[in-house]
User: Which sequence fits this backbone?
């Protein structure tokens, strides 16, 4: 593994930690269920909430299918 790969993994790790802390902060500010769809709804309105929730559902359903077929 080269030095660039290690740097890429380190940057990705920092980004994931920042995203996790962001979701934790939003969860503390708005203690409601459905964070992936609700947080954009609070910030940008109903259409954004529906869009984010729908695409999160698509992503989750596709990742479940692909992981089930790999075994």
Assistant:
């Amino acid at each position: 593994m080269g030095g660039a790969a290690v740097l890429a993994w380190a940057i990705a790790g920092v980004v994931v930690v920042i995203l996790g802390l962001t979701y934790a902060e939003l969860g503390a500010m708005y203690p409601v269920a459905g964070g992936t769809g609700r947080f954009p709804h609070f910030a940008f309105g109903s259409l954004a909430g529906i869009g984010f929730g729908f695409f999160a559902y698509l992503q989750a359903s596709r990742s479940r299918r692909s992981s089930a077929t790999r075994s």
